[in-house]
């Protein structure tokens, strides 16, 4: 029995996967996306590119015309100028076995769950801020990011991305001497 790769329909700010076993499996096993009431799976732009690269979904436009990963990346970068940097951190953490979700309500890019922990089972361990190595982070910005992590009872993880797309992580936390 062969299962077809589900279609992931790009609609501008989000990507929808039609309801079905494949969509449910993406959510149930690895917590990709958000299951909507109509049974569809809503993916972030980052999740959709990652799953397309892994050949878990086929990216298509609203008329079901295939979209290459390169064209999709160009579209995503028009919507989010930091998409490339954010994507490499997202991809690296996912490849390492972590579940990565948005952290907008915490004032961060991502929240990351420890390996083996799914959202809803426990709280995220880190909030992550992806930064390109050429960017300057002031002490004020660094302090603000650390304060957000501390106030949400999470660890701060800075994901530094170089020009080759390699990621280096720095975990930061408050200490009392």
Structural commentary:
The chain has helices at 21-30, 45-53, 69-79, 83-95, 139-151; strands at residues 7-10, 15-17, 34-35, 41-43, 58-60, 99-102, 110-113, 126-132, 155-161, 167-172. It is an alpha+beta fold. The chain has 2 domains: 7-79, tRNA intron endonuclease, N-terminal domain (MutS, DNA mismatch repair protein, domain I); 83-172, Trna Endonuclease, Chain: A, domain 1 (3-Layer(aba) Sandwich), CATH 3.40.1350. The chain has a 5-stranded mixed sheet with strand order 3-4-2-1-5. Strands 6-7-8-9-10 form a 5-stranded mixed sheet. A hairpin with a 4-residue loop joins strand 1 and strand 2 (15-17). Helix 2 packs antiparallel against helix 3. The chain starts with 6 loop residues before the first strand and ends in a 5-residue tail after the last strand. The model has no long low-confidence stretch (mean pLDDT 91).
- The CATH class of the largest domain: Alpha Beta
Order of helices and strands: EEHEEHEHHEEEHEE
Structural class: alpha+beta
Which parts are unreliable, with pLDDT below 50 for 5 consecutive residues or more? none
CATH architecture title of the largest domain: 3-Layer(aba) Sandwich
The main sheet orders its strands as 3-4-2-1-5
Roughly how many Å apart are the termini? 62 Å
Task: Note the total helix count.
Answer: 5
**How many structural domains in the coordinates?**
2
**What's the rounded overall pLDDT mean?**
91
Rg (C-alpha, Å): 17 Å
| CATH topology label of the largest domain | Trna Endonuclease, Chain: A, domain 1
How is the main sheet built?
Answer: 5 strands, mixed
Determine the strand fraction and express it as a percent band: 15-25%
Question: Which word captures the global form?
Answer: globular
- The helical percent reads 25-40%
* Number of β-strand runs: 10
